[in-house]
Amino acid sequence: MPDSVYKIIELVGSSPVSWEKAAAAAVKQASKTVRDMRIAKITEFDMTLKDGKVESYRVRMKISFKYQGK
Predict the structure, then answer these.
(1) Candidates 3.30.1660.10, 1.10.3720.10, 3.40.630.30, 3.40.50.1100; correct CATH number of 10-66?
(2) Average pLDDT, the chain
(3) Interval 24-48: pLDDT, tens
(4) Are 55 and 49 in contact (CB under 8 A)?
(5) I need a labelling partner for 40 at 20 to 30 A (CA). Which of 6, 13, 55, 65 fits?
């Protein structure tokens, strides 16, 4: 296997439904411009609240992708 280099970016996704959908939304949006994503690591979960109820679920994640230097 040849040597490889990966870059890591941090994303925050949100969803009114669940943490899983929040993570999927972040990956879906990132995939529009980031190629060759390999691993997503969730680093934090949180929620926004309004009037004592959950308004949205949020995940902070790090995504790695193969670095294609110029």
Answers:
(1) 3.30.1660.10
(2) 93
(3) 999 999 999 999 999 999 999 999 9
(4) yes
(5) 55
Residue with tokens 């994640």: 61
Confidence (pTM)? 0.84
Spatial CA neighbour of 48 closest among 14, 11, 23: 14
Give CA–CA dist 59/6, Å, rounded. Answer: 22
Question: Using CA atoms, how far apart are residues 70 and 68, in angstroms rounded to an integer?
Answer: 7
Tell me the one-letter amino acid at 38. Answer: R
CB atoms within 10 A of CB 66: 12
